[in-house]
Design a protein that fits this description.
By secondary structure, the protein is of the alpha/beta class. It is built from 16 helices and 5 strands. 45% of the residues lie in helices and 7% in strands. The N and C termini lie far apart (50 Å).
Length: 367
Amino acid sequence: MKSAQIPPPPPPPSSTTTTTSLPSQEEHEMEQKKLLTAFNTAKTLNSNDQNCTFQKPYSEAPVPLILMAMGRAGSSVTWNTLSTLLGSTTTAYEITGGNRTKSLNFFNDMQQDGDSGDSNNGDSGLNWAVERLCHTQQYNLEHVENPVITGFQWKPYRVTLNHEFGKGALKILGKYNTNSNSNTTNSEKNDDIGDKGRRPNIKVLLLSRNPLDRLISNIRHKGHIRSEEMPAHCAIDDTDCVNRHRAYAKGTILPTGKELIHSMRSGFQIDRLCKTYLTEYGVDYLAVQYEQLFNDDGNVDEWIKIFDFLGRAPKDVVDYKTNLTMEDIRRAFAMAPTSSKKHVESIANYDEVKQTLEGAGLTRLLH
């Protein structure tokens, strides 16, 4: 298959730009729609051509990476910061959809279109994830200077993880894991993956966040997500945007009782389900925690784990395992933190929420 003509990601804010707010969620979704349309058009036009080919040698090419995270888990700032630290900022779009309905439609549309599995391997699952990773890599190689990671975001809703095309994609991704002996022997795996093989080592970064903070962020942005007055994110130097977010955050009212407990436990269940499936299908993945990536205690161990996992080093840090600091991380920020450090300041009904969590043994979620 020929390379899909995927439209470029939104350009970074210019120093001469009059506003420092990042693109609105509506603009972000429009860009994603353009990307998907372009990919699907190219796929149809080139259906009789050979499959997309990853750049070689794989050890020097951009790492094909999927960032798997639920909404408001910090996926955009994590990808942006990571790619910037590696020396070339790339964009990871929410290919599978930004909410549960859009995600389910994404998989159901493939089913209605009659998409088949990985015919080269006889799998009943769908090869969509590998194809999109390949085309995204090709696009970035053509339009971004020296990209180090390329890929997309996948929101792992339970209904899509359990979809035949969700499981099928994970099964195929497991065949691109140098470190797994599932589906084939280690000797066959090593011969087939790597610079001398037919496949690159595809990786998944599973990002989790305190479900209470995710809930606060979701409620806070509901009704404001498409507003120019309350963009989904703020640029690092946009103090007005940050102040608006923090002022609005002080009045967040959370559900209590069974509704709150169900929400918290569902968050943990999704994390466990992702790990179960990624492990079961032999996918090369690393689980990281948002709170450990963006902390105030100067601990950079979680970032070092990511660089080790990718096999790539931050561009401007010599011997990162020894010399990387949180200041290095902060210099790569393009998005400003907008969440309050203390729940007692951000949750209007804090006492009721605390009582509910105490009764469920979930007080560890409070900070």
